[in-house]
Structure formats: C-alpha cells, structure tokens
Amino acid sequence: MDSHLKELKSLLKIHLDDIRMVGIYGPGGIGKTTTAKVVYNDILCQFDGGCFLEDVKSRSRFDKDRLQLLQELLRGILVDPNVELININEGINMIKRRLGSKRVKVLSNEEAFQLFSRHAFRHNTPKEDFVDMSKCMVNYVQGLPLAIKVLGSFLYGMAIDEWKTVLGKLTKEEQEIDSVLKIS
C-alpha cells in the first residue's frame, strides 16, 4: 500500500496551483477505493474542506440520489453539516455563491465545454442538437469545475425540453437572489 500511496501522491502534485484528477482503475475487489481513501485521508489536512464520495455512479441514477450526493459534497467542502438542499438547482447556486470567495480554478471556455460534455453526454462533445444549450449551461456556471460537473451530471440523459426548463429555473432563482442582495 505504501508504494501505491507514494505513487498517487506524486501524480497529484498538490504543491502546484492546478487541478489534478487521477484515475484508479482495475477489476473489482483489488483495493481501488481503499487506496483512494488512504490518499484522501492523508492529504485532507492540506485543504479547507473535503469530501470522499463513494459509489457515485450507482448512487446518481435518480434525482433524489444526486441531490443527496450534492449535499454530502457541499457539507464536506463548505465544512457545514447543516447544508440542506431542496433541489439540484439550489445546490448549483450555492456552489456559485459560497465557493466564489474561495481560491477556485476557473476553466477556459474550451476546457469548460469539454468537461461539461463529458458529464452531460459521456463524450468530449455534445450531441449535435444540444450544442447551443450546452454553451448556455457552461456560460451559466462561469467556468467553475465543480459546478460544471454537477450540472452536467444532473442533465445527463434528459431531453432538450428538460434542459430548457432547468436553465429557466436556474436563471430565475439567480435573479431572485440578486434582487434580494440589491435590497440588502
């Protein structure tokens, strides 16, 4: 385990001001999750907050499960056990508001579009009839990687009309928040 831990930590290059993603793959039962958890526990103290989500693929099939995953993620990252979300849209807006003051890497338009496509379509590019809506979604989250991943995963498998409804709700909620902030 020590050699795996050292190798993974060297791949992460935590000292760099950059985003790193390391894939651990192999057949079931060989210790992928255990190895990832050991690395996570070892480096967690270097960050303001963190969250280790297990079984994301099997736990993200339904909206209520995705909402629970998003709550777990925000509770860990924000170090706030009281985070309660009503819906995914609220979670996306919370990411934009609460993590905006933290040092966060913002992706270029091209990087953001590709990351969004990987989560929304499981490909590097969107389906042809989803290109314009994908651009709108990427613009909405302003290049924030976590928001891109959450929104893309949430939209995965939805029809274009559902995407339009989601975008409408997101922009409406943002306008309501902005008007409240202007008053205060």
SSE arrangement:
Layout: H1 2-12, H2 32-43, H3 56-59, H4 63-78, H5 88-98, H6 109-120, H7 131-140, H8 145-155, H9 160-183
Proportion of helical residues: 55-70%
- Strand segment count: 0
Oligomer: single chain
Q: Could you list the spans in which at least 5 consecutive residues all have pLDDT below 50?
A: 177-184
Secondary structure category = mainly alpha
Order of helices and strands: HHHHHHHHH
Range of strand content: under 5%
Rounded to the nearest angstrom, the distance between the terminal CA atoms is 53 Å
Instruction: Specify Rg, calculated over alpha carbons.
Output: 17 Å
Task: Please count the helical segments.
Answer: 9
Major β-sheet profile: none
Mean pLDDT across every amino acid position: 77
User: Which descriptor suits the 3D outline?
Assistant: globular
